[in-house]
Amino acid sequence: MTLPSKQLNSLRRKLEQSYEASAREEFLTRDPLGQLDRHISPSDFEFVSFIMAGLSYGRVEQIQKSFHALMLRLEKAGIGPQGKDLHRFLIETNETTLRKELRLLLKGWVHRLNTERDIEDLLLILSRLGKENESLANVFFKKIPQGPEEALALFSKKLSALNPNKTIKNKSKEWRGTGPQWFYSSPTDGSTCKRLLMWLRWMCRQDAIDPGTWRVLAPKEFKKFSPQQNYLFWPVDTHILKWAQKENLVSRKTASWAFAKELTAIGKILCPEDPIKYDFSICHSGITSFRTKTP
Fold it and tell me: Which of 105, 110, 217, 232 pairs with 264 at a CA distance of 20 to 30 A?
């Protein structure tokens, strides 16, 4: 969709004002990112934040409750508060022992659509990944293709290949969870990949809100591929969807990968060096508005 210069300039001014007003740490209290301890090591933070991003759907209070319940369970295995030493625990524990420990620790844990089996499989994937590649950054940047969509799809494919139970089919009518692929959805499925894209925003951007963990964990790779400019797409949630429709920025009416691409193209016009700069401020505004209207 092509927008008139006057509309773009007006929108850019409003967004900059919103960004300056809300891109501050005190506004993180109602955001999943604000529940994470930024003082743990980059390796731990990368893994812990990946889990948090996958659980980030629904009300923030429930996300917080589920995440902290999960962290308390993991502490029983010797992991520190808020996931400290999670990376070491996953790469130093052999898989047989890890499976047994996780099955006991996670029994009964649930977060909306996610069950203990989802987290167990995800932690086993992260364990395998850590032993082979050390970090998610190494997986993402290793032999990265030219296209940003291909990069995301390949990243998802690499994680899927590490799934210890990918050949197991659930024939029972009992709900057993979404499966670990929930945490690394792919654009090839037409999904908005909202949770994955939000996590990539945390890893790549750096300001008062986003920690830019990969700038520390993989500085050479980060600089080489410039993901902030070229490999980030707008995470589309309910608030972003409604805002984009209200501003008449996107021709599509429903959330999809095509919607995310179209909105990101507008973002590149609004702020070429940082296309998803305004994501947090718009979401925060949407959440505040929703809670004000909710009795």
Answer: 217
Number of structural domains, the chain?
Answer: 1
pLDDT digits (tens, 9 = 90+) for 1-51: 677 888 889 999 999 999 999 989 989 988 999 999 999 999 999 999 999
For the stretch 177-195, pLDDT in tens is: 899 999 999 999 999 999 9
Q: Is residue 248 part of a domain?
A: no
Domain with 80 in it: 34-166+176-188
Q: Which pTM value belongs to this model?
A: 0.92
Residue 294 placed within a domain: no
Q: Which residues contact 32 (CB under 8 A, 6 or more apart)?
A: 52, 53, 55, 56, 60, 63, 64, 67
Residue 149 falls within a domain, yes or no?
yes
Share of the chain above pLDDT 90, in %: 79
